[in-house]
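Quick illustration for those who missed Monday's session on complexes.
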Amino acid sequence: MRSTPDVHLNLNVRGMRRSATVSNNEHLATLEREGHRVFRLGLGQSPFPVPGPVVEALRAAAACKDYMPVCGHEPLREAIASHLWRQQGVERSAADVLVGPGTKELMFLLQLVYYGDLVIPTPAWVSYAPQARIIGRRVVTLPTRAENDWRVTAEELDGLCAEDPGRPRIVILNYPSNPTGGTYRSDELREIARVARRHRFVLLSDEIYGDLHHRGQHVSVARYYPEGTIVSNGISKWCGAGGWRLGAFIFPPGMRWLLEAMAAAASETYTSVAAPIQRAAITAFAGGLWLEDYLTRSRRILAALGRELRRRLREAGVECSRPSGAFYLFPDFGPLRDGLAGAGIASSGDLCRRLLEDTGVGILPGTDFGRPPEELTARIAYVDFDGAKALEAMAGIPRSAQIGRAFLEEHCSPLLESVDRIAEWTFCLTHAKARLHVL
Ligand code: GLU
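Prediction with glutamic acid bound:
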């Protein structure tokens, strides 16, 4: 073996490390195994268990052993198309659906087969840009502003496309957003759709958190740009089944050529998604009253947590926009910049490293989401609590009742503690007090 084997690596991946979410989670797990008290707010994994009927369906399908069709099991594709119809009134058929081993892999395949730039409003999920780099596609980032709750505007998109009007592009819109928890209003989506139609770009609408809109009011942009929107959805977030690895793209009927190209690439790489998982996912997408109840409870817990954690952060002098969905907050420690600089913290990377060292709280720096290093932003995934117990406790609470602090103190206390640690830590550092020491 040569001493510098990495010279044999594809230049696109040379020097590349594991994704920020995955490596952070593995690092925190190692610290935990070593006996450290850590708060795992790095990986965005649903805190809630997979609903009983879906687990039962998986159990019943355990003996299914055949390879499945590359585009997915027909009844599952039908269930996914009807789910979009029921929720958004967007009419699609099974033939428009491509099932894959997580939407992450489908996003990779899309970029592989489509020859165009990747446009991502930032902050954006950690893996969009690295995937484009692996393939060798050009990435164009479109920075958004905290004052606009980190949402891209139709004008900004129009300005970018107008610079080179004929250029093929995939634009990714992700809402409710990972990493901010923010979402778009219908009028904003209509405007974005108008721009998309004018420039005829492929709009990849990453709606994996759609069913975790805190008020259950998610609106798909496919309603307004049906001919050019690919809707991305899966069972990882709203169905708590991230580790099952199943996602889907729903294409406009006029984009079968793109689906077919992705299916060809899929057939030469992973062949098909695990048969038992696909069968179980039919139950998830078909839904029913049990799913409505599960989602209502999940949303109420997440909404109450988002409100409370944001309140505590703001009380500590940290800015943070209001989340409307998912389980993320994107705090900005900028207002404490001077005090933090005195403690040697000048970038979001420094901030997260020191926070982990001093308090055991693991969060991800804004740089992982495409923000500049000197901006003191970070992502909190508020998922480190026993979701099964919290869901169970919610069953006894009437729908009209507010979820108060007492509920959160009782069922989500590690999360409240972690944010209190962040608050106390910033106070200590900015007031030059002794540091907390946990690790
Ligand atoms: N989407 C989740 C996150 O942003 C986890 C899965 C992943 O990144 O692969 O944390």
